[in-house]
Amino acid sequence: MVNLKNLIDDAKCFETVRQLRWPNGVTCPRCTSQHVTKNGTDDTQPHRQRYRCQNCHRGFDDLTETIFAGHHQPLSTWILCLYFMGLNLSNQQIAAELDLCVSDVQEMTSQLREGIVVHRPEVKLSGTVECDEAYVTAGHKGQPDAVKKKGARVVVVV
Fold it and tell me: What is the pTM of this model?
């Protein structure tokens, strides 16, 4: 069996995050300034670049204020989890592939789904927009007379 975790390169994962997050160059997540300098790397993840904003003097890194920030699992594990979610694997199958417990994978997939929904851009309609109207009766519990059609005759046989 091939261990997929060993095939994923951490350096490429961080480089991809940088390209997707900052296509026009690194900017401070707090003040959006582009006056940023590199400030070493993370102690536990050497490919995770640290930065320092020259405008607001705050430190941040590649994952600051992303859905991947503040977790103990490496970025490659999160990327693989996201990939397996795209393949429509169950949490139990993902846990087996990543050699994690099911509760950890449940937490990861929940956070990924929430992060995707939170960062989804707002839908803006423009131009001519058409919609149909519909009348839906929610029900008339306890009021059977309200359900009867208006103008319909009720025949009572005696």
Answer: 0.65
